Amino acid sequence: MIEIDLTGKVAVITGGIQGLGAATAQRFLDAGAKVAVNYYDDPEGLSLVRANGVATRWGDDAFVLPADVRHRDEMAGFFERVTKRFGGIDFLVNNAAILRDRTVKNMTDEQWEAVIETNLSAVFRVSQTALPHLRDGGRVVNMASISAMIGFFGQANYASAKAGVIAFTKVLSRELAARRINVNAVAPGVVLTEMGESIPAAAREQMLAQIPLARFGEPDEIASVILFLCSDLASYVTGQTLHVNGGWWG
Predict the structure, then answer these.
(1) Where in the chain are the domains?
(2) Which pLDDT does position 25 carry in this prediction?
């Protein structure tokens, strides 16, 4: 049996207190890694931390800190504290994302910019800020989306951001190859998280009809692919986007 053992490794997972991020954090903890996750330092962020009980449930192997991925100075402080506690970082998972769906005709500048800022620009800033703390031989995994390939109705901002993440991943993989840091993206289909469940029921039914496996993904299934990319099993995989969507191609 081949097991993934990440004992002694440290993973940072942005937006890791709920949904896919929390499932990924749990996967890494189960594999023996130490994990650091961030959350927005506002009433909603604090309520999510308390409601999910992550700080208590994960114990001393996890570090849960307030930091906004949109603000470089907050993330710089976050990485410094993580390095001070755990000694460095081996894996960065850029998972934090938001939705602000609306048709192009009706989308506001605020809705466009909010999604581009959080889902694309923050991936650049967080990755750049993490580089001094990321050990050689590490891994970066960026979360893309099937929306980048299909372009769902009402998701011009989200699809554009996620397509940008795929392009950014290819460039960063080339730039970090000399440090033996592999950089890949994961593009899930619809996953049964808080974000996935926010899609209107009628739209979800239409989507489900197009998936050959006839079901939506589970957070643990996506988290397992992320774990694989950060393991030695994926040592020769870089610059790639792994599509995990049940066979759905539009």
Answers:
(1) 10-243
(2) 96
